[in-house]
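yo

u said u wanted the structure for the complex thing, so here. seqs first:
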Amino acid sequence: MNSANTSTNKFEQLADSKQKSIIDASVNEFADNGFKNASVNKIVENAGISKGSLFNYFKSKNLLFDHIYQIALREVKSYLAKVRDESENDDFFTRFGKIINAGIAFINKHPRLARIYFRLLNSDDSPHGKEIIQNLHSEAIRYLTQFVEMGIERNELRSELNPGTVAFMMESILNRILQVHYLEIFDTKSNISKNDNNWIDEIVNTLKTGLSTIPPK
Amino acid sequence: MNSANTSTNKFEQLADSKQKSIIDASVNEFADNGFKNASVNKIVENAGISKGSLFNYFKSKNLLFDHIYQIALREVKSYLAKVRDESENDDFFTRFGKIINAGIAFINKHPRLARIYFRLLNSDDSPHGKEIIQNLHSEAIRYLTQFVEMGIERNELRSELNPGTVAFMMESILNRILQVHYLEIFDTKSNISKNDNNWIDEIVNTLKTGLSTIPPK
DNA sequence: TTTAATAATGACCACCCGGTCATTATTTCT
DNA sequence: AGAAATAATGACCGGGTGGTCATTATTAAA
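structre next:
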């Protein structure tokens, strides 16, 4: 009883190369098929282990998915922390542009994790799908709300703005841009192809100055 | 050989009440489980017909889904056309608010169709999922781009704006608002609960006047 | 009313699923 | 080297899948 008996206890004591092959096979299978349609049989086949072993490491398909998801979450958070720290001295709008580009960079670096995320978004066939997504969204809103509040303090944003509302709008647009980029990677037929910095700058700038011909008071 | 031999030919010659019960059962099953995880056995059970009959009306599960999807698409388009015609004399921002409210009304009226749509969005387990979604998005963008161009012509929007970019931003926000509303309906635990007109007005207004403290030239 | 055409049925098929566990292979300890 | 402990295996289980088709029930024609 020396260490906590987590569900991944046995798994974590495996050789690193074996862990990696199992994680790789799992990520690929979940990314391609979502949770329910992912096949444990194919995972063990691609990982080069027996089914009995997998169910020895993880008590169920659910717990295996949880483990994969935790890995993805850790990766995302480290990305967000990085961009927050690296853009501390930029103005609000430059920062927002950098956040968007960090998201794009993440998708480029971890396309299969992004795939799992985007599947999770609306599929609801995953063990804790709803809770996971709610969590991610509220974390994103909190993250962006901080930026907005800071922007107001620095007098870069109008003081009468509701930070939560602005954060919601930013998150909407951010998510959509990332979704488009994700589709560009996974759908070769995609004809959207607007993923260049000019486009992002244009969006940020439009958000900055607004649409109306009539300037506010 | 008098009429086109479509895959739904036999189905459309059925009594209306029978058609309705089959469609109802199918919509419910697809809404609750997505395409692949939907069970044909449960559909026929809930529709009160035999499995053989269903496969007589529709050659495959795929074609049954296609038929359901076409129904949903028709419903959405009629909604969009209605709001376009009814708001012809409003200014751009009032119109955008009405579009958002029309979307919310649609979800309230057809929650199960909305569920199928949101599942379709990222699940990619449906027969032509990718193409369907691409189509819907580009139709939405085209629809909104018209509004933006009209707004510029009427001198309600800055002339230097790129209509496609603005339409993209609007669609991002619209989609997200509808997604939140959808979650409020289907997830009783949802604590977002911002679906009131004040919130929508606030978003539209923020988009109108922009975020920056510095007014454009 | 008898016959011919059409519609509805559900047992059945081959296949795949997540999960189990007695058996076998490997490592560790004496 | 032998015994004990641990790890890995894959045949097997009950259950569900989309789809088929010989049989039965219903309707239309004679």
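Residues 49-53, 56 of chain B lie near DNA strand C (CB under 10 Å from a C1'). The radius of gyration of chain B is 21 Å.
cya
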